[in-house]
Amino acid sequence: MKIIRSVILIALILAFCCPAVFADQSFEVEAKAAILVDVNSGELLFEQNADAKLYPASLTKVMTALIVYEHCDFDETVVARESAFSNLIAAGSSVNLKKGEILSVEDLLYCMLVSSGNDAANVLAEHAAGDLETFYRWMNEKAAALGCTGTHFANAHGLHNENHYTTARDLYRITREFVAIPELMNIANTVSYVVPATNKTPNPRILNSTNYLISGIRTIRYIYSPARGIKTGTTTPAGYCLISTAEKNGLYLVSVVLGAGKDETSGDIMSFVETKRMFEWGFQNFSYQQIVGSGEPITELPVEMSQEAESVVAVTQSEISHLMSDDFDAEKVVITPWLYEESLVAPVTKGQILGEADVSYNGRSYGRVKLVALTGVERSDFLYSVDQVKAYLQTSTFWWILGGAIGLIVCYIVIALILNRKRRLRKIKKHGRYL
């Protein structure tokens, strides 16, 4: 039994250490790198050069938003300092903030995530950390804490810097943290937003999303209804980049595309085209399926001292469902039981836990389920009484009592013999004759 448990444990460790990519790898994306993951299950559905170090452009702002969220309240007021505009370029995206302008953290997050304002990113970074260099250090510390291994941030906005890079896999790790925060996802999924007038800007700012998967204000050619957020990025060295999510059929997919181009014939921005195509491929080829159901019979255990049944059926206590490719074959599921006891003694209660079972498919473990008794088994009172007698006859107490009884009997016989002999001797002496 110990050997079986050890083998199952090793199998589980290997399964969880090895990333699962069980998709058709003939699928390709027209970009330098890409990754597609289902957040709900953590399953990696597709990757292409996912560990290549590339420039993220304004996808950087996803990390900036995370750091700001950790250190600031949305209703805090922020004063834009002149130093926040020091490393910006005129050609970069901007919401035209001015020195001394006062906005809330929330409005600046809209400026940064919806309209991709580089100036908003810097103003937020300075406000959160006190200075930009400290904020960059926080960004890199956060990346390391999230498990990023190919990332280094040198600014808060994503303008080109040779020392500012990341990977598609690392961006997924960062995005996974981002999408778990409803307040940030609400901003990133906003199509249009109006920033109220400020002390430096008398008219409201109207912000329109740069993400054409969710916004049809500038063009409807890329609209994709299941898409939710989150961030675009474009520079000449980085190409067209996009992080997006999409929900459909119970799946919650996150995609990252880096280094896409523009189609020379149609003029299509391929980061949108390929993200949409990748989502559709994922939805068409994967679904949540039941690997093992609740109440499935797995094995039988013999039952001693039962009134009728000689065994009880062990069934699964719960089900296991998981995201699987659509070529999933339930006949190939392997269920390996290990039981707490080799046999049972009646009575057995319906639903009594009897052991566990490891559930695997194609060599990968998908977890364990408890095994329980399908039915109850009543005890035979006669067999139980006989067993109790047998058990008592084997106890040391019984043997001590038996030994004591035998000893008493022997003593009684010896004493009786002695007394009897004495009586005979007395009779002989009395009548003057010998035996």
Protein architecture, described:
Strand 11 and strand 12 (311-316) form a beta hairpin. It is built from 10 helices and 17 strands. It has 435 residues and is α+β, with helices and mostly antiparallel strands. The longest helix has 36 residues, at 396-431. The strands form 5 sheets. It has a 6-stranded mixed β-sheet with strand order 14-16-17-12-11-15, with helices on one face. It starts with a helix and ends with a helix.
Question: TL;DR of this structure?
Answer:
The longest helix is centred in the C-terminal third of the chain and has 36 residues, at 396-431.
Highlighted features:
single chain, 435 residues, alpha+beta, 6-stranded mixed β-sheet, 5-stranded antiparallel β-sheet, 10 helices
Draw up the topology in text:
Blueprint: H1 2-17, E1 33-38, E2 43-48, H2 60-71, E3 77-79, E4 102-104, H3 105-113, H4 118-129, H5 132-145, H6 168-179, H7 182-188, E5 192-195, E6 205-208, E7 227-235, E8 239-248, E9 251-260, H8 270-285, E10 286-292, E11 297-304, E12 311-316, E13 320-325, E14 333-339, E15 344-345, E16 353-361, E17 364-373, H9 381-393, H10 396-431
Parallel strand pairs: 11-15
Antiparallel strand pairs: 1-2, 1-9, 3-4, 5-6, 7-8, 8-9, 10-13, 11-12, 12-17, 14-16, 16-17
Helix pairs in contact: 2-3, 2-4, 2-6, 3-4, 4-5
